[in-house]
Design a protein that fits this description.
heterodimer; A: about 300 residues; about 70% helix; B: about 400 residues; alpha/beta; 7-stranded mixed sheet; 5-stranded parallel sheet; about 20% strand; Leu-bd (chain B)
């Protein structure tokens, strides 16, 4: 267990990535009860947006200068696709039975994936993403990989911004009202359509930040990256209590920790040699989900929106 | 009622269109076989033309295409024009199985080159065998494909239509073990594989030889080939203090694994098989790939005199993608089919016989010619008789051959 601090750090960093994506799932669900299965692809589009900006910049541009531009471009792409999906794929089905938008979401997910696969140059296999130069940063008990620095800074900043936005701003409070009761909120003069668009836009922006972090961490983006990430983020959102934005982050962190610890230690438990290791980490992540759902069906922080979730 | 009539109209139109298109393709087929002066023989290709492994797959397709064009240009088989029909298996066994059925159904297909993945081959072999259609893989290295699941104890050929120009993992894994232990003097290994037919088999043959030589396997771990986060495993590897990592698997997961091992602070090389020897491996792992090793089947084409013409022709062919790891072996596989067709056609007064497929299988078994990768011939199991292997090391951002030879007994 001498590498426990390092494994905890690995898990938290991975979990922060899941959490950032999960925010988009949870906000949309909290307001219109739609499980947006295309969210993983919105995240993937953000990664390709950032990569496109990097390729447009003259060769040899330092990452310090390129990064803000890449981030802006990634956010722009993700937000555009998220808002477009809301307007053209989900809004026409707002009053349809809940199964219809769910199926649309799955269709949209496959469509976005295939569009990138077919039309983005060389995207049929993974594309390399610019990376920080330099080795890992040694902090004694554990090391931090240079590629993770962006995520370590971005995740708390994003969550802080969101907490402020929801609690303190007019739009944020309107969002809370809409999630509690859309009809009454509308009677109080809140433009609920605008609130729904805002939720999609914020979710898209967070997904783009996560995609940028993924690119810098792993040095690559690919058309398939949204599928598994989307599934994991959805799990994180349910784990934390779907509809609750803090729950999404907590759920993400819990999921990341579960994966890292399962990979590292389950193999060492006598009798579990065959069930440990990297290949089983997804299994343990979903075992955790089932346990939480059995023991606490509303999710870890699900109480406040229990009537809606 | 209006809806119903629309439905009927649509159904009638669709059926009509399908019937017409079916007629069309039958006519097309009829034209080809009816024209006695110039018969078209189709060589099927099955490889991943999209997805993670497409770089290698496209190299296979282009090299077969080059072989067909060369045969047409040289009038290798008088009266026969070769064409290729490439299908994409996305490295997916079930798609490969469907492709096999498609190829078998096309009467003009008299031989198939492919697939890339051993797991895909497993789902194709039976279909080809029952249709007597020859299949030559330029890349499958799992021993059980030719020698049966019990190959270590009792070799037994499963499918008489299956051949390969690549040598097997029964040689490749041990060759890497001998190089690591004897030449690099590395004594402890952390073994990782992706649990696929190819990856797990390769890692197993590697470990057997490595322990036999006196090396120590400190841990065995597995990953999912679709995963890209190896942070937790990288930490375990770093703390295991192993001298190197052996990875049985392909570059889409192998490259990020290598990158993350080094990012975690372990300055040890990753050694793997032919599926890591791709330019994309170096691209995806970046600077972290430097110093990693990969074994591959055959001698490096750049060093063989026989390959110079292939490389020049490939360049002249104007293909936009490189021929990659299996280009030369794919060319040889296609050429073996062309030679078999030649034997069969010559024995039948210059015409393609009606039972061409069965005769081509027999002829392929006896093929022997000097190919791009050396002498091409098959043993009683359908394996190549050429057992040369090469170790490559990533130097200056590119796989550079460091040792070529055969496995020491």
């Amino acid at each position: 267990m001498h590498d426990l601090p390092q494994q905890l750090v690995n898990g938290l960093i991975l979990g922060a990535l899941y959490g950032l994506i999960a925010v988009g799932y949870t906000m949309v669900y909290g307001i219109i009860q739609l499980i947006n299965f295309a969210h993983g692809e919105i995240y993937m589009i953000g990664g390709f947006g950032a990569l496109t900006m990097y390729l447009w910049l003259p060769g040899g541009t330092s990452l310090a200068i390129a990064m803000p531009l890449m981030l802006l471009m990634g956010i722009a792409c993700s937000v555009l696709v998220a808002v477009g999906a809301e307007r053209f794929a989900y809004r026409p089905l707002r009053n349809a039975p809940r199964l219809a938008p769910l199926i649309t979401a799955i269709g949209l997910s496959i469509t976005l994936q295939q569009v990138v696969w077919a039309f983005y140059p060389d995207a049929k296999a993974d594309r390399t993403f610019p990376q920080f130069s330099g080795g890992p940063i040694d902090l004694g008990a554990f090391t931090i990989q240079r590629g993770d620095l962006f995520l370590i800074i971005a995740a708390p900043v994003c969550m802080g911004f969101l907490a402020y936005f929801v609690a303190k701003t007019r739009t944020g409070r309107a969002m809370q009202a809409t999630s509690q009761d859309p009809d009454t909120a509308q009677l109080m003069g809140i433009n609920t359509d605008r609130i729904v668009v805002t939720a999609f836009a914020i979710g898209g922006a967070f997904a783009a930040v996560a995609a940028m972090a993924y690119g810098l961490k792993y040095g690559q983006v690919g058309f398939k990256m949204g599928f598994i990430a989307g599934l994991k983020a959805f799990t994180a959102a349910v784990l934390g209590g779907i509809g609750n934005i803090y729950g999404a982050m907590i759920g993400g962190l819990a999921l990341g920790l579960a994966e890292a610890l399962a990979t590292a230690y389950i193999q060492d438990i006598p009798g579990m040699e065959l069930l440990g290791g990297g290949a089983w980490k997804d299994v343990w992540a979903f075992v955790l989900l089932i346990l939480v759902l059995l023991l606490r069906p509303q999710g870890l922080l699900g109480e406040r929106v229990a009537d809606r979730a | 009622m209006r809806h119903r009539s629309q439905l009927i109209l649509t159904a009638v139109l669709t059926t009509g269109a399908l019937t017409l298109s079916a007629c069309g393709s039958r006519d097309e087929g009829g034209d080809k076989s009816g024209d006695k002066g110039n018969t078209t023989v189709v060589i099927g290709v099955d490889a991943p033309l999209s997805g993670d492994l497409s770089a290698i797959g496209i190299g296979i397709k282009n090299s077969v295409d080059l072989a067909a064009k060369t045969a047409n240009k040289n009038k290798e088989v008088p009266g026969v024009t070769f064409q290729i029909k490439a299908l994409d298996d996305v490295a997916n066994p079930s798609t490969g199985g469907q492709n096999a059925t498609t190829l078998v159904g096309n009467k003009d297909v008299l031989g198939v080159v492919g697939p890339l993945n051993s797991s895909v081959a497993q789902s194709m072999q039976k279909t080809f065998n029952s249709a007597n259609l020859v299949e030559i893989s330029p890349a499958n290295t799992a021993p059980e494909l030719t020698q049966g699941a019990n190959y270590a104890k009792q070799k037994e050929r499963q499918f008489k239509t299956y051949f390969r120009t690549a040598t097997t993992d029964a040689l490749q894994g041990p060759y890497a073990a001998q190089y690591a232990y004897n030449t690099l003097k590395l004594k402890t290994v952390y073994s990782v594989d992706d649990k696929k037919t190819y990856g797990a088999g390769l890692a197993r043959t590697f470990r057997q030889e490595f322990t036999k030589l006196g090396g120590k396997v400190v841990a065995t771990d597995h990953i999912n080939p679709d995963d890209r986060d190896f942070g937790a495993i990288a930490t375990k590897i770093k703390n295991s203090k192993a001298d190197f990592v052996y990875y049985g698997g392909e570059y889409p997961a192998g490259a990020p694994l290598s990158k993350q091992i080094k990012d975690a602070g372990a300055k040890i090389p990753v050694i793997g098989g032919d599926a890591l020897q791709s330019a994309d491996y170096v691209k995806l792992a970046g600077k972290n790939a430097e110093g990693d090793f990969a074994t591959s089947v055959g001698a490096p084409p750049e060093q063989l005199d026989t390959a110079k013409k292939f490389i020049a022709d490939y360049k002249a062919g104007g293909y936009s993608d490189p021929y990659e790891t299996y280009g030369a072996l794919s060319y040889d596989a296609a050429w073996a089919i062309i030679q078999a067709v030649k034997t069969v056609v010559n024995a039948n007064d210059g015409k393609v016989p009606s039972d061409a497929r069965a005769k081509i299988v027999e002829a392929t078994q006896k093929v022997s010619f000097s190919g791009v990768t050396g002498q091409v011939a098959f043993d009683e199991y359908g394996d190549t008789t050429n057992r040369t292997l090469t170790v490559y090391q990533v130097k200056g951002g590119k796989h550079t051959p460091v040792k070529t030879g055969e496995l020491e007994k």
